[in-house]
Every structure is written in structure tokens, then in C-alpha cells.
Specification:
The complex is a heterotetramer. Chain A is of the alpha/beta class. Chain A is built from 22 helices and 27 strands. Chain D has helices at residues 47-54, 77-83, 100-106, 116-121, 124-144, 159-171, 189-205, 217-223, 241-246, 248-255, and strands spanning 7-18, 21-32, 36-40, 62-67, 70-72, 85-88, 177-181, 209-213, 226-231, 234-239. The longest helix of chain D has 21 residues, at 124-144. The chains are: A alpha/beta, B mainly alpha, C mainly alpha, D alpha/beta. Chains B and C meet through helix 4, helix 5, helix 11 and helix 13 of B and helix 6, helix 10 and helix 12 of C.
Chain lengths: 661, 318, 358, 259
Amino acid sequence: MADSRQDSGRSAVEDTFPKLLRMHARVRADRPAFRHKDRGIWQTWTWREVYDNVRAIALGLHKLGVAEGDKVAIVGANRPLLYWSLCAAQMLRATPVPVYADAVADELVHVLANADVKVAAAQDQEQVDKLLSIADRLPTLEHIVYDEDRGLRDYVQPNLSALDDIIEASAKALHSEASLGRSLDELIDAGRADDASIMLYTSGTTGRSKGVVLSAGRSVQAARDTVAFDGLTDRDEQLAYLPLAWVGDHYLNYAQALVAGSCVACPENADTVAQDLREIGPSFYFAPPRVFEAQLTRIMIRMEDASGLKRKMFDHFIGVARKWGEKILNGESVPVLSRLHYALGEFLVYGPLKNVLGYSNIRAAYTAGEAIGGELFSFYRSLGLNLKQLYGQTEAFLYVTAHANGAVRSDTVGPPAPNVDIRIADDGEVQFKSPGQFVAYYKEPEKTAETLTPDGYVKTGDAGFFDADGQLRILDRAKDVGKLKDGTIFAPKYIENKLKFFPNIKEAVAFGDACDFVTVMLNIELTAVGNWAERNNISYASYQELAGHRQVYEMIARHVDEVNASLAQEPRMAGAQIARFLILPKELDADDGELTRTQKVRRGFIAERYEPLVKGLYDGSKIADISTEVTFEDGRKGTISGRVAIVDLTRHGASQGSKAA
Amino acid sequence: MGLLYQIFIDPFMQMGQAPDLLVQTLWEGLVGGVLYALIALGFVLIFKASGVFNFAQGIMMVFAALTLVGLYEKGVPAPLALLLAIGVMYLLALGVERVVLRPLVNQPDIMLFMATFGLTYILIGAGQLVFGGDPKEMPVTALGLPKGAIDLKILGGLVSLQKIDIAAAIIASIMVAGLAVFFQKTRIGRALRAVADDHQAALSVGISLNQIWVIVWFTAGIVALATGIMWGARSDVSFALQVISLKALPVLILGGFTSVPGAIVGGLIIGIGEKLGEFYWGPLVGGGIESWLAYAIALAFLLFKPEGLFGEKIIERI
Amino acid sequence: MFYREVGQFKTSYAADQAIFPIRQDRIGLALILAVAFIGIPLIGGEFMIASVMIPFLVLALAAIGLNILIGYTGLISLGTGAFMGVGAYACYKLSTLFPQVNIIVWIISSGLVSCAVGVLFGLPSLRIKGFYLAIATLAAQFFLQWCFVRVGWLYNNNPSGAIEVPLHTLFGIPITGATAKPLTRYYVVLTIVVVMTWFASNLVHGRIGRNWMAVRDMDIAAQLMGIRLLPAKLLAFAVSSFYAGVAGALMVFLWLGAAEPEAFNINESFVLLFMVIIGGLGSLIGSFLGAALIHILPIIVRTTPGALGLSIGSATAEHLTYIITGGLILFFLIVEPHGLARLWQIAKQKLRVWPFPY
Amino acid sequence: MSGADDILLKVDNVSLSFGGVRAITDVSFDIRKGEIRAIIGPNGAGKTSMLNVINGFYHPQNGSISFHGQTRARMKPYEAASQGIARTFQNVALFKGMSTLDNILAGRALKMKSSFFWQMFRHGPALAEEIEHRKFCEEIIDFLEIEHIRKAPVGTLPYGLQKRVELGRALAMEPTLLLLDEPMAGMNLEEKQDMSRFIIDVNQHFGTTIALIEHDIGVVMDLSDRIVVLEYGHKIADGNPEEVKSDQKVIDAYLGVAH
């Protein structure tokens, strides 16, 4: 921590990433900068080597005609050479444009065309082929360079060259002609804080993806703040496994690494990430909630096969952790005996577990992107993993808010990150000013204008509020947040998430905007409820039958009631407790257009399709009939019709959480 | 030069000079060979039927004999002791099938080979634990076997044949004949032969593999018992015989693991060979070469005819 | 659960190819060595050192030799005892012919003698395989045994027919003969065994070991890889009998002090075979575990009844040992054909993935 | 086209029999440098025997084989290996007790020379050699995309992967002639496609000449430049896929009957 501060102090002048790289090549020349599991071992490059390679690539790109203001696309998975190409482009004051490796040709065309990309750096044959297939639709694309030459050895295209060859050639050139080196240095010095450092395309959930332009100076500044915030140093190791084109990867594995001088390791390939994580043992880690969720499931499944005794021990100590783990992590006061008990657990369970998962060395881990279940969140924290949440956006260059060590809660995303100013607009929208905030959407001034307020705040489009201790809570996309007739804020996603944290509930759709009260339609999770049914020897022939079963209803009703209880705890939400619910006779399905391909519920569409049910929910009837079209596994269409029961719930008093049937 | 003479000329001159001695030697070699052959026979039975290289065959012989003698010494009348001994061999067969063969079925041969080592040790231990380790005398007369010797005046010399040896030879021949009949004529016998070829075939005959194994091991046990009695009658019964029993192995190399006639011919070759060697060539090197001559012969054989006298040539396919 | 492998990543092939790539294993090895060199001499009494440790080490060394042959190259040998004998007698002859030369030199060279004999008897292994080869090695066993008895020159025509070890010193300290202290002998044996084990492990982990295993697993394919069977097999025989020879020399010179031909009879060969089977074919650790079990077992059988108050004759104890040994062999073949070594591996694996079962 | 210089291997009137059984009768054909040559035929047509003759495992009673223009009468398998003939097997013949990596390293046996002495110490030349060849094998592992099973004991691998490892082991020998005995037997479609890709890559990038036995006619027709058809040990056709496809004898003998 200390020496990272010194760093940022000493090198306050570096306002672009190439300058930072040059600084590291000087200050910690022989510290490892990049690793890549390749050919069975972790090939490692020191800062000096990286600097030299980047310079070589820069020279090569320069020869290919890349100059200030040009765009260089980076297409592929996390590979040192791609990160270096990215930096090389910046060295030439060109703007790198990372693209999702799994993007299909058309998306690629949209982005590359929109950005007028001049040169593309591709990972391997697959990406090169993809690019070649669309080359004719990209008038500006002049040249393609690639990393892995397997399968590409005997491609004959003229405007195609291997990065290795480029590096080799340029290295020679740089060696022979000092002038070349000098001109590169001049280029680096010429780099200015307001250069467009990078262009990140936001995934197109809302309309076509737009290129978010971030400036060098702001990016570096933002990174400095968070590096200091988490005390990252050049001793830190991190595993770069997130998509290059995602702001998170660019921030954590590029910007922060280049500021802190920490070491970035690239996994062998997508399937070996878990293993590589275990080998590297990162000290700083990021993963979206679903990753943690999937992992927890795997942990539990694997423990199922363990011997009875071992399982008992595991459960026992997990219990201990639940009780004390977070307290200890938060540095609260804990009885000595409990500490000892926990220490024993650390030796027998938590330690080994973290070791097997590769978490042993993690000092700070973040999760973000979606709401994370409290259970899930505290499970990892209770093991002693310093897992925190952050709330961020591409437009902010990631950080808007972040948990500080010791003050972590699953239901908030933390207080504003350093030097970030947040305000809640009257309509409940979260707006911020951050050091790293974006300059503009590339070639889309009107969209930029929409997103920026006159006084320079960025609209997040998310609704949220600060709770008592100044931590931000995100409710939902602002446009989805509505009001009940009585004026209470109605945030469907917020309620739906609370419901979905119950393993038995797969999907939830909440209604209530401009109504008297809140109602929800639920999907049960077939596997979970199915098991439950078996244990309670409830026989069922179909999803529909199970979903309609009385006992299932009773169980779900208990869940919903719990949600109401927790809502009751929150002054602003108490009014939005769930009054009535029903369980849908069919699973919501993207094939039927009820979900987006990213598995988000399409509320409006559902409201129309299940109109009779919605009506039933509000006209007080106990049952409603529905007949709707479904698409079966094999794609056949059919209709299922059924009679759905609707359940009323008594709401909890705002303050005291007294339960009622 | 002198050495060459001693090796290649002198012995044969001796033979010529004293044919009676030669005959005597041949006879003893023959009898020894017959007994080797019997041990090898039991071995071949098992190998054919269960593909097990039964290292314990020799020990089974000693164990059987020891049981017989041991019981007799404990006051059990000889005939009854004999029956009991047979019974024990049956139990042994059952045990082996249960404890060794069944769990190890489909394991590589080497495993089963090693397993018979374990069996060997258990038998040695058990035998001594029950009946004591000290050498015992075979109640020849009580078993109704002849004693004494017949002296033949032939070739201007005297050749004395131990009656017991004659008996041994006869019993051995009977046994071999019996087995031959058993294999050729009886249903089980045919089944056994089938097993040798492939296990499925055996099942088709309507006998479970396990039964067959028990039968085979039991048969081998009886052979072992007979052999044991013979050996016991010639020398004392003790686990020192174990070393003699190992002589069955070179016999097998000569005869091949799967051939009954091979076992017999091999036995005779080894028996006679080592006696002649010991008697006529042994003195050159200080005697006692019996202990290894058999193996040397076998080894020499291996190098020139690895598949043995009657074993079929193996073509390696890949 | 003691394994904490996070962050133990390899940045060079040298590190990745290391025989003990995991730090915890290296630590464990260091501990074992520490115990052997410091702990046992401190706590172990006369009996412990002279009658447990020295024999154990000697037998383990012989077992390693045999394991190289059977476990790594797949050649069965029933003649190990005899090859130990060759080592012993060679060492006796050499050291009595040239008493002035340091005994350690002779111990090593006697290994070479046995090595030569081993190659000689290994020659048939080209033509013959499996059981046939096993029997062929019996020829070696009995022939050599016969030599030990009949060739008076080997034991300097000592009327007793036995060989007695004269006094030899190392740096002025007696290490063989009556006056040699157990502890000194222990250190000599231990050092030799450790060094030779290290060599063995290097061999089996390198090119040579791979060729051996290739021959063992699929000799046809091995040939088509360009591996010549005869040299590979003969090398295995050579190394194997070298180890046996040295072990034999150690056995007589630093353990028993004197020996008769009987010491190297067929049973010795069998016992070693069992050590290798029970310990685990194709595993050096297994050789040690097997040696420990088979050697210490009789001691336990002999001592426990006394401890339990009931007295059994040494004969009975011996017989029991036979039965138990035999039983163990069956048990391992049936339950865990890969022997103690595999159990060890499984345990290790469990610890590595702890708390998960796999 | 077929100048003597571009002939890599020539089989002249080879006959082979076991005891009385005739496996191959008077078969002749050649393999040109850099081509993919297929040998097809019904089961028991003597295809595998032919490979075994080529790499010296069987010795033909009469006929001769010339490799690199030099004719040889009898030759030991390891000699064939050292001349650059590698081989995979119909039913995988891997070294079951060893890891994927060790299996492939074993393929380098001929190339590794460090002395016994250094092997004992696993230092100096021995270690250097070990590492150098590890590098080479890693290239193969990367080429065959089997990184994830590098350290796994081959015995535990699924069949398809085992076949791939075996190919890797053969490639480790850097052969000039690679004999593949039913490289795709028992594979599913996807595995077959992968394997075909690898075979073509090997042939193109390393310029390795390949002779392969395969039952999947589709694959054979796609892969091979020329095809020999055997039946009951006799050669009944020889030529490029088109010729063979249209050959009446072949149709009757082979393509006619379903396989």
C-alpha cells in the first residue's frame, strides 16, 4: 500500500499508459509484468521486456501506417500480445478498439465500420478468418496482424502479418537505427492527457452498441484512485480472464495494472481458467455474481459425494463461519473462543477450500454487474474472502461506487468511489461525476448529449437511493421504476431479485405501476422444487401440475412472505409489499419471446400475453384461466391452457416485522 | 585337452564300462522324473483350466502329504487320514476359488501368479502351524504300499529297484491314464478342455466357471497328494521338499504349460537328465549340480525352443 | 489439507519437470531425511538401529533394485537373493584380497560384479517373457547358490563354509567387523541408500526410465518408437543387480557381519518379491514401504504376544509370519493391486483436493 | 509424375504367410513423397499385415521393400523407426502406465542421447536434453490441442483422445513416413473431423508422407491422394479416389458390401 502511494506520488507526471509503461520499465525493469500459460508453463515477461515488445509492435504498426487518431481493433481473448498491441496503438496516439472475441461477423462489421478501424490485431486463425470474411464490408481496414500462427502459416493474403514477425523485424530495426527509438520516445512524450485512450463498445442491450470514448488522463486518474483505494502494489498478481472489450477487464487488468505495476497473468485457454486461477493464486480478483453462484453450487455438489464424517465436519465449520466469519473479516469484536473455533475451521475447511478454488492469496475481490444474493455473498465472505461489490459503468470507466474494506453489505453497492460525486435525481435516477468519466459516444453527439446533464453529470439510467449509512442501493433501470397509486416507489426488478434469491423461484415478474398494490407472477425452479417434491413424496406428471400443486403454493407463499418482511424493513419499500401472487403454469421462455436472449424478463410483453392473469391478479378473483402458446424443446408449437390459483398475502407492518399467515 | 576328455569322453566310457550303474542311474532318474511329471501335471491342469500359473503346486504337494502324515501321527488310521487329506484338498480347492480366483478373475495373469505366491506362504505357514515344522516319516506300510527293494542281476551287475519306486511309477501311469480318460470321455473333462479354449464355451457346456475351477484345483490337489505320498515315502515329509517341488517348473518349460504329455516327457527328461548329469559330470565340478542342472537344461531349451516341446508357437499380432 | 498449492506456478520446464514439483512434498522429504539422519540416532536404541533400521534400509535398497526390474521394466526375477549373494561374496573376496583398499570402494565394486552377472543371466530375457523368464531366473538363483556352497575359493575355503567380515575402517572409524558401532554402520548404510535412491529416482524419471516403462507397457510399440528391447532390458538387469549386489554387500558387511550361503536362498528372493508387490510395483516409495512392512511384520508378530502376556514359541511366530505375509499378499492383490504406494498416492490426492472428495 | 526420385517407399511382390495362412500374396505398390496414401479393403484383407511388413515387424517370405530408394530384405522395427517410419495402431497401443506427456516424450527416444552417467544425476546434458525435448513435445501438444490432458495418465482418457495422443507420440518421432492404422476407428463424427484436420495439417505443414488404413470410405476419399485396395491379401485396385470408386472389382469386393 505504502509504496504504491509513493509510486503514484513519484510518477504523478505520467498521464498516459505508454508513459506509465516506460516508467515501470525504468523503475521495476525486472519485475514480472505479464504471464501467459503457454506450452505448459507460465511464460513470463518483465516490465522491460514488455516495454521493448510494445515499442517494437508500435514501430510495426507505424510502418503499417497507423498514426495519431487512427483506430486499431483488438479482436480475441486475453493474450499478452493483444494487450501489448493495445498499448502500442496508444503509443502511436492511435485509439485501440477492443472487440468481443465471440462477436459474430455482423456485430464485428457494425463496430469496426463505426470506428473506421484501420488495422486489426487478431488472436488466432478463427478471428482472422472472421475478419477476412467481412473485409470487403470494411473499406477502412487496411491490415490484419495476428498472434497465434497455428493454421495461418500458409495463408497468402498480402495484408496479413504475424505479430511475432513484426516484433522481430522492428526489434532489429530499433537496434540498428537509434533514430527510430528516439522518434518513438518523442511520440510517447507527445501523448497528452486528453488523447482518446480507448474506445469501448457498450453491449447493445439498449439499441445498437455505441463506442464510449475514454481519455488517457481521466483513465489514468481513475485507476490511480482505485489503486490507492485497494492498496494495489507491484507485488500483486491478477488473472486476466474477462473479455478484453469489457470495461471491467480493461480497467482491472490494464489500467490498474499499469498504474500499480502489478503482474497480469493470461490463462492457457477458456477451459483451463479454474486450474490457472489455482496455479497463479491472484491477490486481486473480479467475477460476476453468476460465477460465484455456479461455483457455490459445484462446491455443494462435490461435498455431497464426500464421506459422511467429512460432510458433517464441513457443515459444522461452515456454520461456524456463517456465525463469525463476516464479523471477524469486518474486524468486529468476537469472543476469543469463537475466534479459536474459526481458526480451527480455517485450518480444516476454509483454508483448504480457498486453496482448491485458488482464492488463498486474494486481498480484494469484487463482484458487480447484477444484484448478488445475500446468502451467496456472505458465504464467500464468511470463508475470509474479502469479497466486495462495486457499481460501475463503461461511461464512468468502471467505478461509481465500491465497498470499502470492513464496511461491506450484500444489499448495497457501497459509498461513492474516491473522487466520485453522486446525486439522486428527483425521479430517483442515479447521476454521477467521476474522474474517469467518458468524453463522448463516438460519432453520436446527440446520444452523448442525452446521457450528460447540462452541469456535466452522467445519467446512469438506474434508479437508486442512499440508505442511512450513506451506501448506495440500486433498485432498477430508472425507466422501469414506477409509482403505486399511493405514490410509493415501485421497483419491479428490486422485488423480483429478492424473490429470485430463493432457489425454488426461477423467475418473477412484478406488476404495480399505477396500481393500488404490487402483484407478482412466479416461475418455480423445476429441479429445486422437483427435489423438494420427491423428499415430501409429492408426485407430479408435469411442470404445470407441480406448479399448480397446493403444497408448492404454500411453500412459495412462505418465500413471498419473507420478501414482504424484508421489504417492510425498508421505509421506502414497505409500501410496495406483494399483495397477491400466482405461479405461472409454464416456464417463461426466450423462444416464446417472454425473456430476452440474456434471460431478462420482458415485462410489457408478458403483461399482454397473460392479460387474463394480470386482470385476475387485480380483480380479486381466486382463480384465473389462461391458455397460451408454448414452444416445446423440439421447437414444435402448442398451446397449454389451465386454471391458475391466486393467493392473497397479508402485508407486514412497516416498522415491526410481525409475521402473518 | 584333459578337461575336454573328462567332459566328452570319460563319462561315456564309464557308462560303457558299468552298464548296470547306468541302468541304475537311469531308473532313479526315471522315477524322479515321474514324480516331477506328476507335480507338473497338476500344474498343467490348473493352467489349462484357469490360466493361473500356479506357483503353489509344489507346496500343495507338501501340504497334502503333511496333512496325511500329520493326521496319522495324531492317531488317525492311515486310510481315514488319506480320506481326510483328500477332504482337506477339496476344502483348499473351494477356498482358493473363493478367496483367490473369484476376486481376481480378469486380472492380468501376473497378478494371479503373484497370488499363488501368497497361497504358497499361507500353506507353508498353516501346514507347519498345525503339524509342526519337523520332518515326518510317511507311513508307507500303513498305506498299503510296498517296502524294500528288488535286486536284479543284469548286465553283469546288480540293479536294485525300490518297490516303492516301482509303485510310484505304476501309480503315476495309472493317474495319467485316468486323467486322460477323464479329459477325453467325461462331460466335465470336456468342459475343462473347453475352458482352456474359451470361457464362454465352457458355460455353454452348462457348468459354471467357478465349479470348473473348484474341480480343477481339487483334481490338482489329489495329484499333489499322490505325489506327496510318493516323495514322502522316498524321503521325509517336510517343507524342504518345497525346493524339490520347484523342479516342476523347468519341467514345464520343456513340456509347455498346456500339454499333459509334455509334462510327462519333460519330467522324464529332467529326471533322467539331472541324475546322469549328477552321476557322471557332477564330480568334475564338485557334485551337487542336481540343484541347478534341471534349470540349466530348461534355460538352454528356452533359448532355442521358447514355446517348449509341445506348446504351440505364438504369433504376435498388433 | 496440508497442501497449499495456490501460487506454486512454474515458469520454467526445469521447475515443471522437477521430481518434486510441489513445495509441500519437498518439505516432507526434508523432514523424513532429518528424522533419518538426526531423529532416529537420537531416540532410537541399539535394537532399533541395529535390528530394525539397518536391515530395513538394506532390504529397501534390494527392493528398489528388484522394482526397477519388475515394476519399471516388467521383467519378473526370482533370483534377487542370489544376486545379493554375488555382491556379498564379491565384496568378501575383494576386501580380503586387497584389505588395504577402502571398503566402501569394494562395496560399490561388488555391485558392479553382481551387475555383470546380472547382465549374463539377463540375456535370455530377449527371447523369453513373463513366467518363462521367471523360471529362467530360478536357474540363476540355484546355480549361484550352488557356487556359494561348492566353490571354496569364494569363501577362502573357510571350514565353516561361511564368510566372516573382518574389521574395516573409514577415516579411522571402524565401520565393519565386530568392533563397529551400530550407529556408525547405520550412517554408512543410510548414506549409501539415500544416494542410490536419488540415482534410481533420477533414472526412472528420465529417458531411461521412460524406455523401461515403454518396454513394460507395450514392448511392440516401444520397438516401433525405436527403442531396442535387448539393451533396454539388459540395462534394467544391470542396474537391478547392481542395487541387489550393493545391498547384499551391505547386508553381510554392515548388518549381519557374517553369512552362510543359506542367507541368499530362494526364500530371500521371494521375500524381496513380496516387498515389491506389497509396496507397489513401479514405485520407489513403495519399495521402502514394502520393505518396512515385510521386515517389521515378523518383529511385531514376535513381540506382540509377549506384550499381550501370552507366550508363543519362536517357531509358531515364524509360522504365523508366513501366514500373515501370504494373507497380506492376497489382500493387496485383491484390494489394491498397486500396493502401499497407491494407497499413499490416494491419501496424498485426498489431501490435495481436501475438503473435496475428488 | 511418378519419377523414381519422388517415390518414398516401394513394395515389390510382397507375400507373407503365417504357417499355412496366406496374409498377403504378391502385392506391389509405391508411396510418393508427400502424398496421403490409403490402403483399404474388407476385414482380413491383410491391410494391417502390410503395415507390419513396412515397418519391419513382419518379415515377408518373398518380395522386397525399398525405402528412400534403398532396398532391404529383413529389418528390425527399431531400424525402421530410426529410418523415419512412425506408426499408430488399430487398437491404441499407448504406454498405459504413463502420462500423455511421457508417452509423447517416449516418442523422442531415438533423438535423446544423453549418457547414463548424466541420467543418474539428472543434471547437465541430461536435464538440458529433457527440457529441449519437452519444448518440442509441447509444440505437438499445442498442435493437437491436448493441453488439458498433458499430465493425465493415458489409461484414463477417452478413446478419441487416446488416439490423438498416439498420433502425437508418432509425430514426436518427426517421421518421414507415417503409418496410421484406422486412425478414426470408433470415433464420433466430430472427433473424425478433428482427426482428419490433424492428418491434413501434418501432411501439409510438416510435409510428412502418410499411409493410412481406414474403413470410413467417405474420409478416405476426402483425405487420400491415391488408394490401394486389398482383398484376401491380393491387390485388386490402385489409383486416385475417382478411379477406385469407379472400379468394378472394388465395388463388388468392398463398397458393395456394407461396412
